[in-house]
Amino acid sequence: MQAPGRESSRGRRALVVRGGWEGHDPVTITDLFLPFLKDHGYTVETADDLAVYEDAGRLAATDLVVQCWSMGEITAEQSRGLSAAVRAGTGFAGWHGGIVDAFRGDLDYFLLTGGQFLMHPPGFVDHTVNLVPDRSDHPVVQGLADFRVHTEQYWVATDPAVDVLATTTFAADEDRETPVVMPAVWTRRHGAGRVFVSTIGHKADDFDVPEVRTLTERGLLWASR
Questions:
Q1: Interval 203-221: pLDDT, tens
Q2: What is the pLDDT of residues 121-138, one digit of tens each?
Q3: What does the alpha-carbon distance between residue 139 and residue 224 come to, in Å, rounded to a whole number?
Q4: Counting Cβ atoms within 10 Å, is residue 22 exposed (0-12), middle (13-18) or buried (19+)?
Q5: Which of 77, 83, 150, 197 reaches 20 to 30 Å from 131, CA-CA?
Q6: For residue 216, how far is the Cα from the chain centroid?
Q7: Whole-angstrom Cα distance, residue 92 to residue 224?
Q8: Helix (H) or strand (E) holding 111
Q9: Model-wide pTM > 0.90
Q10: Long-range pairs for 56-61 at CB < 8 Å and ≥24 separation?
Q11: Which among 37, 39, 16, 38 is positioned nearest to 28, based on CA atoms?
């Protein structure tokens, strides 16, 4: 499904960067989206080495970087290269730990994504993803409604400048006197580039939920140059 209001992607290039902690199945899950990108006219390449972020020419020729790289370490040169490419117009997108539990402590990377994973309750929990009413016309979530998932619920630290499209709520407990509303899906601008983040996607069957699959696919297209 093409994101509402986005032009054709014919002739564009996507780079899927995948690796890091294997618990997030970076190859299996990114493979779910390769046919979608190809069907939308992208030439798709994959990379399993962060050294690709040092290749300024390759990144400049890339319209969309899809990253699924949990934890791990990124060098200062790689982080600066990625940030510079997005600032110049290359799109950047990802989900769950592959984008917000990556390269902990790298400030430039945090400022690029606009958020960082801090914790999640043990195991998989049933919870509702609530769309932000004031953002219901955003191309990523337009026409969707609140939905339920059974997966990890991420507690994240976020930049106040992100555009939050959906949230989840953590109930009050022994640590919190009141419920806490947490960003779950957001976008942001980074110079001329667009960034899409969804915290949903620990396991492949999370994307069997139609709304999760749809907003993720739309997010990839929205972020692309």
A1: 999 999 999 999 999 999 9
A2: 999 999 999 999 999 999
A3: 13
A4: exposed
A5: 83
A6: 8
A7: 7
A8: helix 107-113
A9: yes
A10: 56/81, 56/84, 56/85, 58/15, 59/15, 59/85, 59/90, 60/85, 60/88, 60/90, 61/13
A11: 16
Read off the amino acid at residue 42: Y
Half-sphere exposure of 221 (CA within 13 A, CB side): 25
Residue type for 134, please? Answer: D
Residue closest to 17 by CA, chosen among 8, 9, 26: 26
Which pair of structure tokens corresponds to residue 15?
């780079």
Could you tell me the end-to-end alpha-carbon distance of the chain, in angstroms, rounded to an integer? 18
Cα 167 from Cα 205, distance rounded (Å) = 20
110-134 burial: b if 16+ Cβ within 10 Å, else e: bebbbbbbeebeeeeeebebebbee
Asked whether the beta carbons of 35 and 64 are under 8 A apart, the reply is no
Residue 181 predicted with pLDDT over 90: yes
Strands (E), 60-106: 64-70, 91-95
With CA atoms as reference, report the closest residue to 75 among 106, 100, 33: 106
Judge whether 106 and 75 are in contact, CB under 8 Å. Answer: no
Backbone φ and ψ of 130, nearest 5°: -100, 125
What are the structure tokens assigned to 188, written together?
A: 């942001």
